[in-house]
Amino acid sequence: MTITAIMKLVLSLVPAIWVAAVAILSVQNATPVSLQFLTFRSIEMPMGVLLGICAAGGMVGTALLISLERPRQQRSRRW
Q: What Gene Ontology cellular component terms go with this record (predicted)?
């Protein structure tokens, strides 16, 4: 196996493991929960739904931060 094949395998296994972990946690924790921040409180929803919303929000936030990153200028080397 080449290094690129190993990298592709690792990059596909990491999200698969996370999805499996979220699925297992959501099945085991079906009781409704609600988030509370300071005085604000959300509606009660199953833990799996809450995990999915948080995971999707994290992915969208990360994608936005990466897309907003300013391209770096290449420095010319002077010898």
A: plasma membrane
In 3D space, the residue among 33, 29, 52 whose CA is nearest the CA of residue 44 turns out to be: 33
How many domains does one find in the chain?
A: 1
Cα dihedral 65, 52, 11, 70, rounded to 10, equals 0
Query: For the whole model, what pTM was predicted?
Result: 0.56
Give per-residue pLDDT as tens, 42-52: 888 888 788 78
Q: In whole angstroms, what separates CA 73 from the centre of its chain?
A: 29
Phi, psi of 37 (to 5 degrees): -130, 115
Residue 42 is assigned to a structural domain of this protein: yes
Q: Count Cβ atoms below 10 Å from residue 73 Cβ, excluding itself.
A: 6
